[in-house]
Amino acid sequence: MGTLTVNGVKVQVDDSFKTLSPEQQEATVNEIAAQLAAGGKGNAPARSGGVEGAVRSVARGTLGIGSYLDELNAATNATLAPLVDPLLPDGFEKLPGQTWGERYDQALNIQRRKDDEYDADHPYLSTGLQIAGGVGSGGALLKAAPVIGNYALGNTGASVGSRVASAAGAGGGTGFVQGFGAGEGGGTQRLRQAGVEGTTGLVVGPAMMPVAAGANKLASKLARSILGESNDALSSVTDQARRYVVDELSDPSKVSRYRDSLEKLGPEAMLADVSPEWLGVARGAAARPGTRGLIVDPLNERSSLANARLRADVADNLGPDPVPSRVDRSLAAYQDQVRRRYGPVMAERSNYDFMPIADALDDEIQRLRGPAQRQLRNVRQMLNVNGQDLVTTDPAIAFETRQAIDGILETEQNPKVISGLTEARQMIDDGLRSSVPRIKEVDAQFAEIARQREALGEGRSVMNNGATAIRPSELDDALRQGALPQGEMIGPSGVPLRIQQSSLGEIYRAIGTEANDLNALRKTVRGEGDWNREKLGMLFGQDRADNVLNSIDRENVFSDTANRVTRGSDTAMGSRFNQFLDEVSKGQEIPSDATLTGTAGKLFKSILKRIVQGNGDANAGKLAEDIGRLSVATGSTRDQIVEAILRRGQQNVLDQQRMSTVRALTRSGGLAGYSSLPGVRN
After folding, report:
1. Got the DSSP string for 7-71?
2. pLDDT for residue 503 is more than 80
3. pLDDT at 592 over 70
4. Is the CB of residue 107 less than 8 Å from the CB of residue 641?
């Protein structure tokens, strides 16, 4: 502690008073004198520091307005002092001036003294806090008003020249505004300080561009290192190829959709199948002789396995190929076994009076005319004992007569004949039921197999299209009625199974005969509307049916990709990628002023141009190879590529945002620190 005589009064001051500059000591003495005049004790106020000093430093760094805060605070305090000072304890610094101007000058001295004290006591911390205030305020401005913020921070312009001009303009403008506020005294001094800081900003603004670029590069490197991108699926391609993929083909929203589509199409799907841009890449790479095989060979190989994939998918979802002809032969063999069971059953027969049946047939014959009469007369003759005009009593003869009627009915078309024969067969069948006890058991087994063989034939038309197409409601009725047992049978019939097997056999037949024409296959199995989908769902379950139909759709997508890449004429599809390759293959033009003069100069330029052109062609070929193979990758390799593209695309968006923010904030931090730069403000 020490003493100081002010206006004849000794006052105590801190030892730090000696460390103040003459201007600061003078301001302190004037403030003490003002307190003495107002009746105060005259103690020197405590030096600015701690949290208050830190907050003030951050505020002073606020972009644009930080240098005006001391005057704004002084004006506010001078206005409120008459109301607030009487309420404050004696230990607080008060503003005893009688007029607003006196109070303003006193408050401004207090504000500037506190700032100067904190700068003197904590020079490095104060500078850092002011820069932090500039960075924070610049970031807040970018977030709240991006357009205004980018212009204010010089973060605009497409070309290098325009970006430099933008940075210089923003730096000069911001420096001028801050310098005018930092100037002390009249307008001349303020303009002088504004000129100094505006000029500094004009230089510092562009100078911060490489600093921002370096900061962004370091941030990107750290981010990629954390994300593990150094060893992803794109790390093996050239930098130029990777940049093209990231800049042109990595839109995160698109890549996410492509990934979902690839998952639906399965492991054999390629990026060229789901993305027009990647299809263009494949088309462009296939158009170059050096890389055509790299693209075309995987597509052709995939196309050659379409039949195998479809059969595997059908087998996984609907079951193996039943081969309906084999099923029918198996049923026919079983039917023969059942037919042989009639022998033991007929051995248990007993004589039966078939005369009433014969009389009924005679009456019907007298009534009918034409084919119906002739067929019934033949049946009536079959009931007689062989060579005699005597009705048999042997059920074996009646059984053979019934068999003969069945044979006639298989080919008969006349409804009158069919009606007459059916009625006659029923009467004979009733007689056999009474005379042969177990014949109906065998009849039921034989009839069930016959029904199944008939259903096996009818099932072939289930997938038909056009006028012969069976409606879903008709198939539903056939399945329901076909499942009901008939005769002496117990339990559900095998008719629905045979319809299912026959329909499945038709699907396999279509795959075997139409797989090379997937449009025809799709039309055969899927049909034009929803009927076939609905009918397949009835037969096999809707999910399994949809899986098979989706497999056919998938192969159509694969086939379309192969056609458009290997044989199509989609030159526009690959134009963007081809244009990129053409620009690369041109190489760098050799300027005429960089060559020798005369004949030797022309020769030298020609040699250099060939070298550059050759390198350009080689680079274009390498790019076409690197990027082209990405477009036709499959399986886990494709998945890794997609994830790498998605991750890098997201990182690219962040890079652009980060580059914009870091560039702006780096500049804003530099501009905000003008007040602490040596030689700028004294």
Report:
1. TTEEEEE-GGGGGS-HHHHHHHHHHHHHHHHTT---PPPPPP-HHHHHHHHHHHTSTTTGGGHHH
2. yes
3. no
4. no
Q: Could you say which DSSP state residue 6 is in?
A: E
DSSP string, 604-622: HHHHHHHHHHHHHHHHHHH
Q: What is the spatial distance between Cα 107 and Cα 95, in angstroms, rounded to a whole number?
A: 7
| Gyration radius of the chain's alpha carbons | 50
Distance CA 578, CA 398 (A): 86
- Could you tell me the pLDDT band of residue 515, with boundaries at 50, 70 and 90? low
End-to-end CA distance of the chain: give it in Å, rounded: 28
278: nearest Cα among 565, 500, 59, 27: 565
Query: What are the tens digits of pLDDT across the range 248-275?
Result: 888 999 999 999 999 999 999 999 999 9
Distance CA 515, CA 525 (A): 11
- Give the largest Cα separation in the chain, rounded: 170
Q: What share of the chain is helix, strand, coil (3-state, %, to 5)?
A: 75, 0, 25
Please give the share of the chain, as a percent, with pLDDT higher than 70: 72
**CA-CA distance, 405 to 396, in Å (whole number)?**
14
Residue type, 470: I
Q: Which helix (H) or strand (E) holds 3?
A: strand 2-6
Collapsing DSSP to helix, strand or coil, 349 comes out as coil
C-alpha 1: how far from its chain's center?
73
CA distance 296 to 209: 46
Which token pair is 603? 């020769």
Burial class (CB in 10 A: 0-12, 13-18, 19+), 179: buried
Show the tokens assigned to 366: 């007298």
Q: How many CB atoms lie within 10 A of CB 296?
A: 18
pTM above 0.70, yes or no: no
Facing residues of 11 across strands? 4
The DSSP 8-state label assigned to residue 233 in this structure reads T
Average pLDDT over the chain, rounded to an integer: 78
Residue entry with tokens 């497409």: 158
How many residues are recorded in the chain?
A: 682
Is residue 219 very low, low, confident or very high in pLDDT (cuts 50, 70, 90)?
low
Structure tokens at 525: 């199995």
Q: In Å, how far from its chain's centre is CA 616?
A: 35
Distance, CA of 134 to CA of 59 (rounded, Å):
9
* Distance in angstroms (rounded) separating the CA atoms of residues 273 and 257: 12
| DSSP type of residue 471 | P
- Alpha-carbon span 359 to 394, nearest angstrom: 17
